[in-house]
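hey can u check if this looks right to u? its 338 residues, i copy pasted from the old doc so theres a chance i mangled smth
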Amino acid sequence: MKAVGLHRYLPIEHPESLLDVQVQKPAPQGRDLLVQVKAISVNPVDTKVRSPKERTEASPRILGWDVAGVVEAVGEACSLFKPGDEVFYAGSITRAGGNSEFHLVDERIVGKKPASLDFAEAAALPLTAITAWEGLFDRMGVSQDTTLNQGKSILIIGAAGGVGSIATQIASLAGLTVVGTASRPESVQWAKEHGAAHIINHHEPFVPQLQAIGLTSVDYIFCLNQTDQHWENMAEAIAPQGKICSIVETDTLLNLTLLKNKSVTFVWELMFTRAMYETADMIEQYRLLNKVAEKIDAGELRTTLAKRLEPINAANLRQAHKMLESGKTIGKIVLEHF
């Protein structure tokens, strides 16, 4: 079957950084689904995994952790899906990615594709929706009861990016007042269209900008880029007994003492954790993806697709990686059709 993979970890400008390859079509066993891939999306994790390092792969390493497709076959222990079902999911970082014509994935981390979306629109959502949902509800403990969130606020750093585009929507739907960060006119507009009630610039001190919109602090902060750079600003802006969640690893040690006097909670979110460790609640990703699909079909949430590329091949994936590495992308980049 066709796939896009790598043997060496190279700068994206190198023609061999991603290659068109042929690999054997897998067969499902246990709780695995065999999915015919219709569309894929790219995320910063793809560029991080592909980034230059002194290592080579004897067999092509296949990346890609956003898929929408059709179930072709199921393992003998599957009970949630059947052949012909349309699905969307992010998969597991510990297994081969979805940049291939067919892909194996555990059914417990798969959702039913929103019926109102095409495959490309659906492929834009899984990794970011899982990250946003888990970060908000599982890690920071935001209530899904909107009445309990009245008067509460959240600052989303990087509101126009992939995760930010869906996190602003979910947080707003939960009843929080959403303050997003953006620094360019186009990203400001995108963030406002996707649920941010207010916008501040993440290149400037947070508190004076919050005060200018009538807030002395925020109850929650969801950091979606450059944790190190924003750490002191976050510590100053968070309310006493507030909660901060970040998805971005740090290059330096964080001074947690800055949070002590306010009794602030800091927590990480990595949407691969449940699949990586096969946690007892791994099936929660199946449930949350289905909830997201229901809200999409009800018109309460919308896709964050911003750009389509066709077909799925190495040249287009190199282009998508290069766009992501520019740091200026808005929403999600999706590739469709092999």
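Residues 171 and 270 are 18 Å apart (CA to CA).
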